[in-house]
Amino acid sequence: MAQNDLEARHLETLDRDLGRLSNLEAATAYVxxxxxGPGIALVFIVLAGLAAALSFGQTSNTLVxxxxxxxxxxxxxxxGANDVANNxxxxxxxxxxxxxxxxxxxxxFESAGALLAGGDVVKTIxxxxxxxxxxxxxxxxxxAMMAALLSSALWVNLATWxxxxxxxxxxxxxGVVGAGVASAGFGAVNWSTMGTIAASWVISPVLGGLIAxxxxxFIKARVxxxxxxxxxxxxxVPVLVGIMAGAFAAYLSLKGLKHLxxxxxxxxxxxxxxxxxxxxxxxxxxxxRQSAGLENRNKSLKVLFGIPLxxxxxxxxFAHGANDVANxxxxxxxxxxxxxxxxxxxxxxxxxxxxxxxAFGISFGLFLFGPKLIRMVGSQITKLNPMRAYCVAxxxxxxxxxxxxxxxxxxxxxxxxxxxxxxxxxxxxDTERRLxxxxxxxxxxxxxxxxxxxxxxLVRRAHFMTIIAAWVITVPAAALMSAAIFxxxxxxxx
Length: 494
Description:
Layout: H1 2-56, H2 62-93, H3 99-117, H4 119-128, H5 138-162, H6 168-184, H7 191-224, H8 229-256, H9 265-291, H10 298-304, H11 306-341, H12 352-369, H13 371-379, H14 386-406, H15 412-441, H16 450-455, H17 461-493
């Protein structure tokens, strides 16, 4: 009996020790988990530097290009963590996409947009903001572009860390301006181009909000407020998907196929029209099958808008990749050219490996660091369902596409968040309008107190003011940081 008691005590001691080891392993895994993302990001940055060294070749400027590629990869990661999260947030917030599904779709279409259609805006960033001929030497120009890259990346990294959806476009343009002024004075900056860009920063969120509100009004008027909602959806959902597909087909044919064949604007519009009509016709039987047996209520409409929302999110990712890859690789492309040829003017050629760094960096940044801001934009500004999220995604996609078409580096953050605000404020206006109509029909209804009316607002005013403040401070903050970094680089380089 004593022997059995002794063995039992030994087993209890062994169980406790194993339990401690198990807890230690769990604690180690919990502590190490936050380090996985930065570790993978560091590996990508190192690989980007190695790729630059192998692609550029052995010259006296190889080290400069490697450092610039490291900065560009770092910036691309931050774009993925901040901007892409803003664009995919509505679909996730509406529960139309899981977090994993959104990340996969965004990664594929972001990379495709950057590689197929990202060239024009890259040229605007790399040589349209600062006049290269106003800078003394190619070395000074390279230092200025490196300062712009690093300052904008640091600012976006800080904003992502505190959970603020700032504009990476604002950051990089502010960085270029700050470095340009520090290196050659105010005359180095092309202020007419800056004026056009600044105007687009104001116009793009307003336009995004108006388009999103217009689409939501259309859906409410033609589908939601109809007596037979399902029958109305069978008519109009294919039309909405056709509009989206037509815009995507026209844009891809004009921008993505230009490396293979020259396509005029008129031909691209005809291709878009044909693609839109074909998609509309193909979606009619799909929506008919989906709507079979659905109850005539708003909740059933969410099912029918699932496919349009997923496709519009993919379209937005493509458009964002085409537009925002410039933020990561525009200055890098200018550095590579200046380091290779010594020329700091003329046409900027964009090496394929430079675009690959931008495309893959954006995807990695989204995968590793994006979920935090996806949740914030998708659910904390205003409540979204698939219909509202579709309006946001389609509006943002169309606005970004037009901007990239014109070669304007607009802020996709401004557009996407502006569309979210547009949907929210439209719902507030529409709700107030319907309440007034009901009060006219039923005069004896009680009037809500101002405090209660404030609590019922559909857009969170605190987030609105915080985001606007972050937008305002980004350009001067990035410019000041860039100027300081430029002076540091010049002092170090001698």
